[in-house]
Design brief:
Chain lengths: 414, 467
Amino acid sequence: MKKEIKIITKNWGKINPGRIEDYAATGGYAALSKFIREMTPQSALEEINVSGLCGRGGAGFPTGRKLGCVALEKNQEKYFICNLDESEPGTYKDRSIVDNDPHMLLEGIIIGSLIVGARKAFIYVNGNYGKEIGILERAVEQAREKNFIGESILGSKYGLEMEIFAGAGAYICGEETALLNSIEGNRGEPKARPPYPTQCGLFGKPTAINNAETIANIPWIIENGGKAYAKIGSRKSPGTKLFIVNGAVKNPDVFEAPLGIKLGDLIGKYAGGIQLGKEFRFAQVGGSSGRLALEKDLKLKLEYDCEAKIPLGSGAVLVVDKTANIHELLLSWTGFFRRESCGKCVPCREGTFRLWEIAKRLQDGEVSERDVAAIQDILWTLNNTTFCPLGKFAATAFSDALENFRDEIYKISK
Amino acid sequence: MKIKINGQDFEIKPGETIFQVCLRNGIKIPTLCGTKNSHEGVCRICVVECGGRLITSCNTKVYEGMEIVTESEKISQARRINLELLWADHAGKCAACKKNQRCELQNLATEQKIENFHFIPRKEELTDRENLDLLKDNRSRVVVDEGNPCVSRTTELCVECRRCINICPTKELAFNHRAGDAVVGTAYGKPLDCIFCGQCVKDCPTGALTDKNDLVGIQAELDDLKKMAVALVDPAVLESIALEQSEINSEGKLVGALEALGFEKVFDLGFGMGLALEKMAQAIKTSGKGNLMLSHCPSFNLLVDKYYPQFKGSVLDVANPDELMAEAIKGDYAKLHKINPQDIVVISISPCVAKKKDRSGKLDHILTVRELGRLIRQKNIKLAEIKSVGFGKDFAVKNESAKDMKRAGGAAEMIAKMTGREYIVADGVPQIKNILRDLDKGRIKTGLIECMVCPGGCVNGGGQSRK
């Protein structure tokens, strides 16, 4: 293997996450002082644009463009939000960032806020991350003592307040408009777009919402320049990414790998390959909402690309071997979406419930013709008519499984 | 600016939604959650096609050069599936439903030609275990609220369209729980205790929110030969009774229909209105100089009780016209005609839901326009054969202009004439809130304040029928 490039995980296991001095000793907060002493928001934004960094939450929207939109807004009051509402099953990359190196995240949030001109930043944390909320609170306190947060940061004209906001652990609140609703004190439901949050977000003010992993890349880019970042990884989506490999592999964990890595390499080289005595069947890429990659797809590159056959999503890879029960998987997927749908629109609220009901009846492998027609109808309406992408996600894995393993999933009872 | 709808060019104004453009030009798009003013985009039935993609017409703004198709196979498939999904969750036994034949879900299913509901499994196709599972999980979250005298709530029939949430002026209703368990409810699931303006009942597309009543009992009292049933007809009822029963297009027809229902006497509430106006004017003349609020809107009285108790003293203490007239009927009128007051049943036909709350013993029942329509349908009265009849002469209306009390500002205008004081009028809760706030800060010097909770007054009352 070539020399690994580590950006986010470079300090993991080497420093005490509870001590800001440890982070500073490894060159932490150097990017912030570089930004304040040598750069303007415009030049920093240019570096991020050049780097080609794109959103790590799943959609892969270019970060530079998003920040640029908010920076251009004339409004006096703007907000910057770090989305740490990680609730995709089998995904724990953002949690690992906080566990191992919270100050890198804070530095990214501070720089990002100053670039867009926000004077208030929120960290929206999944309510189930009790330990992480504690770590973040301590980290914010330490950063405030060192004058990285507060009025006139490091003696400059910049000022920033930071608040940690704990959600209630709902999956839908990871969707940016639902997240805004949640912070505003409303029910966590998506809002219609447009207007986009970049123009009319939190409390009607322009708001930049970014995933925690995306933000953790910013200090490195500011310190080493956008050009250096653009050289890493694939041409379409540069940089490294945290991958979480779970399931029937020898070494399930979080790995940092350059984007564009082949799925087979990720499983084989990073996660130590398939467990002894087991055979690879398929891998689900991107959490519960991800598509299924079969043996023939192992050579596909993992990158953010709207035409990719297998969308990368959150970067979670669930490796399923041949002993796994496909019916149980179907029940677990449909059960998850049935539980996590917000209940706003008809196809998602009722469709996910009916799909889960049918998945329960599928357990013995026999269904009636009416059920088969019902499955087709529900998957179609979830795919085409739901309010937000959650409904679409609810249909993805089920459709893929039906396409590839139909004979095993059901036979029609007479 | 122009857009193409079904290949035809249409002029648009910036900021309009697709639905509004279609409505303006007479292109029909079915919808369940949206009304003229609200666009939630949750029922996904108003979908149209734009560039091969399905989008909701109610919350998508038009732009120059947009090309829209409003009828296609894909669109009707989406509408059919989403409607069927709603029906699968709908526990309606239509024949016994208060909204039967007036239900938008029912009408949509007929319109979209829904013939079978295949999301509900048939019993014989299930194994015992599956059957048990189905019983166990199926719709455990049902909220039935009968804890108040005005509004019945049953979430079994709810389609989660959010119209009630959007229209509610005091924000009493919201969603509780999530996913399939999501139900419209009150804070902490307590029984509804609001100002009972009834606008939510008026707007509800299904039987989830209905007027609370005992129509069977009322019909029995009407049929009882020993009892004398007296109807009081609010002039505002004529505004919308034709929407409920199109044959009733005049005052005379309405009286005829009421007599056919079993009412012995039908009186015009205009008499009671005159009485109330006189009493209010009297009370104002004898009172001091300060600001006074008229008391004929029961919903407003509840609003003051609940949210603005500091103003309780400045609201006049005069009962509403229905009560005054019921008192007159059971008092002087009964004595004059030598009838035992206990044998008289006074029923007010009213556009108001809030009147059902806090009734004195004199007024026996309140029927909203919707309930009257249902009674007429239940009794199967041949409305085409009904003759026009005049109101009872015993309580002839002395002053026709007293009937103007039905619209916001009517009462204040007349009382101002009688007392020579100045007045201001507020209709709708937002306006009322503004006025009461100004009053609190001492910015208002006028003598009389009339507040009507329903926008426009009783003509748009919560008990009226809706198109």
